[in-house]
Amino acid sequence: MSISISNSAQHQATVATSTLTSKITEYSQWRANLIATIDEYIDWTGHAEALNAIQELRLYDIKEILKKDQLVLALLAEFSRGKTETINALFFSDFNQRLLPSEPGRTTMCPTEIFWSDREEPCIKLLPIETRQSDDTLSYLKTTPDVWHKIRLDIDSADAMKQTLRALVQKREVDIETAKRLGFWNEDDTSMQRQLAESGKVEIPVWRHALINYPHPLLKNGLVVLDTPGLNTMGAEPELTLSILPNAQAILFLTATDTGITKSDMQIWNSYVQKRAAHKLVVLNKIDILWDGLESDAEVELLIQKQIKNTAHELGLDSKNIFAISAQKALVAKIRKDEALLKRSGINHLENSLAEQMVQSKHEILGRAVVTECSNMIRASRKIAQIRVDSVKNQLAELRELQHKSHDASKEILAKVVAERKRYESSILTFNQGSEKIKRLSSKLLRHLSLGYLDTTLAQTKQDMGDSWTTVGLNRNIREITRLAINLAEEISTEGQIIKKHADDLYQLFWSKHGFEKTEAVQLDMRHFIESIQALEKVTEEFCTSPVNLLTEKNFLIRKFFLGLGVQIQAIFEQTHLDCTHWLNQVIGELKNQINVHKTALDQRAESLMESHNNADKVIKNIANAEKDLVKYQDQSNQLDATLLKLMRSAKFSIDHIKEPETEGNTVHVNLAANSNSIEREINKSTIQFDAPFI
């Protein structure tokens, strides 16, 4: 069966998912427009001396981040709540049948990530469950292709696709000792107890994790979907818990009309969603069980509203964030192009809110970061452009004065410029000495964040745990790591203050002696480093006290959690190292660019005056050249202003500290807050690797 559909069917399917599709497509276009604006800035004609290699690389990095950016949607629920059917209804109805396996009972056996990357053919990658016995983390295993079982997807055949994806639900039987080693044994699970009594075996998944690379239009535009198994598997994969929620733009937590909010639902909500997910929607699925024909539509609606109200009360949530749907009927409606059934299924309302929340979340994080950092870079270039304009104006004034002065008077003008250049060269010598001092201090600062130091600390922590993997030991060691991290942050902050003081002295020198804009170096902010470590401490404490974790064999679970914790701590250190490196590059980087441009301008002024001295023809020629340069540099300034205005108007977040350029005559004044340290962090936090969308 071919998955291609007619133009008419395509149009109807588009209508059915118009909001979700259009919002994600609109977001993709917004990223493309932002990239085009950055390209416009890179191609700015005044960049001869205004953009150094580090800044240029940074702009290309930002462009790559925008190109690879993803919108992450995670679905969390206990078994049999209809997660997979909801995914089929939301994204894959164009197959005219179920794409992902969805049937009564337990279907999703392992966490499944669905995305698209053109770096690889359409395929499904499956990680064997035996890898749980190793200490290798999921993030590491995603960089090791040999351990994955790869199956090519035949995207021209829906039947072949469906058959291939049946691998997601494969199970096998093992003895109880193997189940314990792999973290699957739960003595409170009655079905496991029954299996053990009947066959002496326990049923477990064949696969630990699945990656589906599929060229769906929404996935091509950056959407990533994660389908998770139930409570037991979530508890047995702490790395998912530590990594998934901070990266997701939206969490869909599914409950079911036929079960209500169960004890295990509440455990998932309390442990993984309520406090950890910034953007969450609750789905009350399977409302079609109320469509028994015995009640009128109005009576059914009253029952649904009552259940929404009860669900909101139990979860402590506003009822506007709870969506009653029938995923199964929504899928049927989309396949049959039944608009009435589609409306009754309630999925359109969910799609609208989901699209709004996901895209708005991305605009707030990535949009704010990119627009703010690029705006600051353009602002710095604008200063360079203004230095050129001011210098040419001074040159013109001197040449015109020279034109009407006596020989002795012209000597005075020339001597004045030469003296100014000598003072400037003296200041440059001071700058170079200060720059070398800052460079030495920078190397010392970055050594604090070396991975060698971190590896030693984590190895000592693991040694302290020994063979006794207990929650007490885990809590004690994360508290010790937090204490060390706070002390480290204080040391780095102190050294950062010293570096800033040296940088401020240099800014002060060139302001007082050479008329540069009065400014200060950006301050190094280590708060996010501390908050990130403290957040891990809080998550660890919740993990150690959560009743969910009583369901899984202790030693296995605590060891896995510790390994996942190590990955997160390493990521925090690496990100902070990047933050500090970026800060050190910019602490006097802007001043250095201004110094170079100002020196070139001074040299040109002196050379022009020397040429024009005692030569009337040269004076006239140099005045004409200076007038042309003035027009050129003013045009370059106007180009920057236009690019900046375009960038600011592309911002789709609440701008509380960035103002659009204010026009006054022919001059555009720009007021931008400079906090590139946090910007660097936000951009990198939003970066998602293809091989590891979440972990």
Automatic annotation (TrEMBL):
Annotated coiled-coil segments of the chain: 382-412, 609-643
One Pfam assignment: Dynamin_N
Keyword Coiled coil part of the UniProt annotation: yes
Record-annotated Dynamin N-terminal domain positions: 77-287
Keyword hit for Coiled coil: yes
Record keywords: Coiled coil
Name of the protein described by the UniProt record: Dynamin N-terminal domain-containing protein
